[in-house]
Amino acid sequence: MTPFHLAFPVRDLDETRAFYGEVLGCAIGRSSATWVDFDLFGHQMSAHLRPQATEAARDGKVDGIAVPIPHFGAVLLMDEWERLAARLEARLDIDWLERPMVRFKGEPGEQAILFIRDPSGNALEFKGFRSLEQVFAH
Fold first, then answer.
1. Which residue among 41, 58, 94, 99 is the one 20 to 30 A from 82 at the CA level?
2. How confident is the model over 73-88, as a mean pLDDT?
3. Bridge partners (DSSP) listed for residue 39
């Protein structure tokens, strides 16, 4: 798999480092006074300081669930997703948009999902699959 790169806005670099580093467990890469890189499950995420950053609106609909657009995250194998979900569920400081749940149960593309917000209001979705062949199943 080749990693992707995503640059995204954040209001505060210190709270962003704490969230992505301590809460999500991302390794922290290079940084400057205005940005910091994270390893999000093998992908390069660059948080750029934008004090005026705003939260994504919950105006998307997926299976009747209001989801924020835009959002980003990672597709994980189920055991890794379950570890992340348990790690987040154990914390009291998570801004949940959708708690862990399974979609398309028993159908092609069955997946576990969860949605959270980071301290800057960026929406993150993490999906879990039993097999990566199911990611694009229909």
1. 58
2. 97
3. 27, 44
